[in-house]
Design brief:
By secondary structure, the chain is of the alpha/beta class. It has helices spanning 5-24, 39-48, 91-103, 121-129, 139-145, 157-160, 184-196, 230-233, 238-249, 261-266, 279-299, 327-334, 336-344, 372-385, 416-426, 449-461, and strands spanning 27-33, 57-63, 107-113, 213-215, 222-224, 253-257, 304-310, 347-351, 392-395, 430-434, 472-473, 479-481, 489-490, 522-523, 528-531, 534-538, 542-543, 553-558, 584-585, 590-593, 596-600, 604-605, 615-620. Strand 12 and strand 13 form a beta hairpin. It holds the Pfam family CBM_5_12.
Length: 630
């Protein structure tokens, strides 16, 4: 779509006004990871208390990069947001909550991408984790699950590098950012990139279509590209549709969370021993952002555009692979108007977390910069030194990297002393955190979410700002309350909430004398359950979250005996038949497989859900949350 000169002038004037407001009003933002089991209830709790929560922006996550939304259709069916499972898939309810948040002074953005929706398991394993020899931080996953790189196949999810085996992921859990070559807006974005690129010659790869077979020209292996190619079948541009959906939902803005590390490692350029360039990944990312920018200017000029960025993304020094270093530095160098548009409207939000101090892998920027606060301030300074406007990020609870079960000693969690040190330097500029309902995790000194939000809010908006005294509300009532010891507590849910009848335990796990966990039961903070031979304690109100998946459940250890744990199927799968290889399914048919609901996009028989593109993956039966990794 081409803008007229008049429309460009109007759009520029609106952007200028939005820019001034965005720069002068610090943002305190939290990501909300949605799922059909309790995601709507969490969002409702936030919306009902919008005027009193210690944040002024929420990022709803995540839409699939290959999403489809036809303007005016008012359905989330092909968005991949995991908000509803039937009807309009939660569109009307989501729109109503967005309106309540806006009335309460809270902006709402829809985020596209994230870790799972940007990880290609085969390529990430072979060219990122396993592409630099055996002495890399995550190579142990290959050794433990496949023995060697050659032993990694789809059957063992390419040795579980994108997600651990315990998550039970299948290929349908992952996605890549597509290149919608049939879109005129995408073609305009490519022209912009090719005209302004100053590094390696841009090369794009529209042949890598989600849901289709792709032959790796480097080793001749053929694999199914993760994701849903429905957008290609119906000739839609997902990045344009993100804007159409944002407009119809009444959102303040949209957010692109691009984390395709596999792309940088696969398409790197340079000598065999390094260092290399990752210019092709800068070009792809910038093309995506330009597509969204053009769509905003043509469809909803007042909409804001935000992005997540890697901690090392603002550095200009040599790149040795394995991350997204240099991407945002090069974007600003070659496409400064694009970077400025993003940075001064929705913002560039730097994921300064999941850091490590393991010097075996040179994970400290230098020998004297190893603590969490030192590294965070170092990376934020790299953005500032290169004139890149950006905002700092925090992670609640146990970091996703390095894996706590493999290397807990090199984790850098957000404890109070580190939070204080970061706020002393970054606090007045605002910031964001992951995630609104993530628990304190396995380290008891981690600062819980309400306290983190309150402290960021007071530093950015002023200690006397009323909302900064608020807490993050729990679904069904109650709040996660900030306490001096930085632990999470929750008030009792309202009358009518089911709680376990018995909470008798013995120390160290002991006998399984507590009730078995049930997906349909609501548990208040302090409730104890047994699951798969282990005992767990809820940190706050919860329903549908599998105990072994982490927060809000704390693992108290193995039981020595007692009743056999049972799991009651979640409500979202009730009444849906399990997939059968011998059954023929027509378009729209729903089945369960591997704990998830799948919908047939066309007639099929014998194609297993999770490995065939005909099946569109929907909600989890138990509502287990996928962890976000970096």
């Amino acid at each position: 779509m081409r803008l007229s000169t008049a429309l460009i002038s109007v759009a520029s004037a609106i952007v200028f006004a939005v820019t001034s407001e965005a720069v002068n009003n610090p943002v305190v933002a939290g990501y909300l990871l949605l799922n059909p089991t309790n995601g709507p209830a969490k969002l409702k709790a936030l919306a009902d208390n919008a005027a009193n929560i210690p944040i002024n922006r929420i990022f709803l996550s995540f839409a699939r990069p290959g999403m489809v939304y036809v303007p005016g259709s008012n359905t989330l069916e092909h968005v991949g947001l995991a908000y509803g499972t039937s009807g309009d898939y939660g569109f009307a309810d989501l729109k109503a909550q967005v309106a309540k948040l806006k009335a309460g002074g809270v902006e709402t953005f829809l985020s596209m991408g994230g870790w799972n929706y940007g990880c290609f398991p085969y390529v990430y394993t072979y060219y990122s984790v396993g592409g630099y020899g055996t002495s890399t931080p995550n190579y142990y996953k290959i050794q433990e699950n496949g023995g060697s790189l050659a032993g990694c196949t789809e059957a063992n999810m390419w040795c579980y590098t994108c997600e651990p085996k315990s998550e039970g992921t299948v290929l349908a859990d992952f996605d890549i950012f597509p290149e919608p070559s049939n879109s005129s807006v995408w073609q305009a974005a490519l022209t912009y990139i090719k005209t302004n690129a100053k590094g390696d010659a841009p090369v794009f790869h529209p042949e890598m279509v989600p849901g289709t077979q792709w032959k790796d020209p480097k080793n001749q292996m053929t694999n199914l590209v993760p994701g849903d190619g429905y957008y290609a079948k119906v000739n839609r541009d997902p990045y344009q549709d993100l804007v159409y959906l944002g407009k119809d939902l009444g959102l303040t803005g949209v957010d692109v969370d691009y984390e395709e590390m596999w792309h940088a490692d696969y398409y790197k350029n340079g000598p065999a021993a390094g260092p290399w360039t990752n210019h092709q990944t800068t070009y792809k990312y910038a093309a995506i952002m330009q597509d969204v920018r053009l769509s905003i200017q043509a469809i909803q000029p007042t909409m804001l555009l935000a992005t997540a960025a890697s901690a090392a993304g603002g550095l200009s020094t040599n790149w040795w692979g394995g991350n997204l270093k240099n991407i945002w530095f090069n974007m600003n160098k070659w496409f400064p108007d694009l970077y400025t548009f993003v940075a001064t409207t929705g913002g560039v939000n730097v994921m300064t977390y999941d850091l490590s101090n393991n010097q075996q892998y040179y994970e400290c920027p230098d020998a004297n910069t190893c603590s969490l606060s030192q590294q965070v301030n170092y990376y934020m300074k790299s953005y500032a030194d290169n004139n890149l406007l950006a905002h700092v990020g925090y992670e609640i609870g146990t970091p996703a990297y390095p894996d706590y079960n493999h290397d807990p000693t090199h984790q850098l969690p957000l404890i109070q002393s580190e939070l204080t040190a970061i706020l002393a330097v970054q606090g007045a500029k605002g910031g964001f955190f992951w995630e609104l309902y993530k628990g304190i995790g396995k380290q008891p000194d981690n600062v819980e979410v309400s306290s983190v939000a309150q402290q960021i809010c007071k530093a950015a908006l002023g200690a006397s700002t009323p909302r900064c005294a608020g807490s993050i509300p729990q679904p069904g009532g109650g709040t996660i309350t900030a306490t001096p010891t930085a632990t999470a507590t929750a008030t009792v849910p309202p009358t009518g909430t089911t709680v376990p009848a018995t909470t008798t335990t013995t120390s160290g796990g002991g006998q399984c004398t507590v009730p078995a966990w049930s997906a349909s039961t609501a548990y208040s903070g302090g409730a104890k359950v047994s699951y798969n031979g282990r005992q767990y304690t809820a940190q706050w109100w919860t329903q549908g979250n599998v105990p072994s998946s982490g927060s809000p459940w704390v693992d108290n250890g193995a039981c020595a005996g007692g009743p056999t744990p049972t799991v009651t199927p979640g409500g979202s799968c009730a009444g849906t038949a399990a997939w059968a290889a011998g059954t023929a399914y027509s378009t729209g048919a729903k089945v369960t497989s591997g704990g998830f609901i799948y919908t047939a996009q066309w007639w099929t028989q014998g194609d297993a859900p999770g490995s065939a593109s005909v099946w569109l993956k929907g909600s989890a039966c138990t509502g287990t949350l996928r962890r976000r990794l970096y």
